[in-house]
Specification:
2 domains, Tetracycline Repressor, domain 2, mainly alpha
Length: about 220
């Protein structure tokens, strides 16, 4: 009986050799010399294989960076930068498959189906990092908007992946630049700004309106 890893490896080899998915689970299982039942013992479809691969890549990266001795000393911004640099380093060994997997997305701005399993893992990680930043005061705790910070980081996730897939620069240096600029701009927006101070002042004046009227009398 084939293991889940053997099925995954055979699937990756097939799609990279033929530039398409197998015609059916039956044909794929026959080529692998296993029964359909053996395939379904591990996966429900070819799509589930791809989701599993992305889940593993994402989970492994998060576990690896958290195991760094300096992890607890990083700011929220540094933790996200560390994730993306480490993530793409991890993806290099599977770049051909990553390109195949991502090119199948249904619409220009939609999330590729293969990332369906990785998305909640990344969002949970991002939310954890964001909450730490809110607690330390590194990030601005804006009503309503703070809950959407993780959505902005997911957009960055998909953007960076697609940028890397199309990057032809030496050592993917353009992607490194995109990560740095994108995460820094995003976190600049998450932090307090003069507009936050202006809003706080407006709230103060609103709450103390009667006092202001007495002072003018």
């Amino acid at each position: 009986m084939a293991t889940a890893d053997q099925i995954k490896d055979a699937y990756i080899d097939y799609v990279l050799t033929h530039d398409e998915e197998p015609k059916s689970v039956y044909a794929f299982a026959k080529k692998l010399k296993i029964t359909e039942a053996s395939f379904y013992d591990h996966f429900t479809s070819f799509a589930s294989i791809e989701k599993n691969i992305w889940v593993k890549l994402t989970s492994e990266t998060i576990a690896k960076i958290k195991d760094q001795g300096v992890w607890t000393e990083f700011s929220s911004r540094e933790k996200l930068l560390s994730f993306f640099y480490s993530y793409l380093e991890n993806l290099k060994s599977a770049r051909s498959f990553i390109i195949f997997s991502l090119k199948k997305k249904e619409a220009k701005f939609s999330t590729p189906t293969a990332l369906g399993g990785a998305k909640p893992i990344f969002e949970l990680f991002a939310e954890e990092v964001i909450n730490e930043g809110l607690e330390t005061g590194e990030l601005a705790d804006r009503k309503f908007f703070a809950k959407r910070y993780k959505d902005a980081l997911w957009i960055q996730f998909v953007f960076i992946l697609n940028f890397w897939v199309n990057d032809t620069s030496e050592g993917f240096e353009k992607t490194d630049e995109a990560i740095e600029k994108g995460i820094n701009v995003t976190f600049d927006l998450f932090q307090r700004s003069p507009i936050d101070n202006l809003l706080e002042y407006g709230k103060f004046l609103s709450r103390n309106g009667k006092f202001s009227e007495k002072m003018r009398q």
